[in-house]
Amino acid sequence: MLKIELAACLSCAGCIALCPEAALFLTSDSLRVNQGECTLCCLCVKFCPVTALVIDGKVRLLNSEKE
Ligand code: SF4
Ligand code: SF4
Questions:
Q1: Of all atoms in ligand 1, which is nearest to the CA of residue 24?
Q2: Is 7 exposed, middle or buried (0-12, 13-18, 19+ CB in 10 A)?
């Protein structure tokens, strides 16, 4: 499951633009994910400049390797 670290998210909307499933969207106060649409492709996770998107902890490892 894709999780959003709302405290880290800058609401830059970059992840929304690249999601091939249009699963991400901004409400008036925060980023949300439609879990039913998300295929866990990780594109948004790899893109996010502040590591605000994570999938079951595994992707945090990928991001730490990137740093
Ligand atoms: S790319 Fe990261 S910082 Fe930007 S809206 Fe998405 S989760 Fe938030
Ligand atoms: S993991 Fe892929 S399908 Fe899911 S929200 Fe991110 S970009 Fe969209």
A1: 6
A2: exposed
Q: pLDDT (tens digit, 9 = 90+) per residue, 7-66?
A: 999 999 999 999 999 999 999 999 999 999 999 999 999 999 999 999 975 555 555 555
Tell whether ligand 1 has an atom less than 6 A from the beta carbon of residue 52.
yes
CA 16/CA 40 separation, integer angstroms: 14
What is the rounded CA–CA span in Å between residue 54 and residue 56? 6
CB distance 59 to ligand 2 below 6 Å = no
Task: Tokens for 48, please give them.
Answer: 């996010």
What topology is assigned to 2-66 in CATH? Alpha-Beta Plaits (3.30.70)
Ligand 1: which residue has its CA nearest to atom 8? 9
